[in-house]
Amino acid sequence: MKKSLATLAGVMLITLSGAAFADESEDVGKKIYERAFGRGCGSCHDIASNPQLSALIKDGKLDRASFENTLKAGKGGMPKAVEEIMKVPAVVKAGYGEDQAVDAIYAYLKSK
Ligand code: HEC
Fold it and tell me: Which of 38, 57, 92, 104 might form a disulfide with 29, Cβ 3.0–4.6 angstroms?
């Protein structure tokens, strides 16, 4: 009984810290979306004629790998973005590397 209670407490702790991490990451992602390039990704992507990132990700039409490729290499009217993303104060403060920062914005767009 004691042992199973301890196990349960352990599982809850892990679940809670996992949730807290996901929240923090999505929050950093939101700040990237609003602040990268000074005016945010939304300054272009919230315009209907440009790719609607959140909808594409939710519909399974934009996977994590091609998302990252576009950020690294740019694409047509889409400027290279990784350097700008790494300068967003929330990214610097969280101490994220490139992978974590791309995860954060991808997770935010998926949840948006
Ligand atoms: C100056 C305007 C502009 C800004 C700022 C901008 N984008 Fe884009 N983005 C575009 C345009 C235009 C395209 C379409 C490019 C094409 O398909 O030729 C695009 C395409 C993309 C794509 C590829 C979509 C697909 O279907 O393959 C991704 C991913 C993307 N942008 C992410 C971002 C993120 C994340 C940010 C912010 C860090 C951002 N963009 C900021 C204009 C912008």
Answer: 104
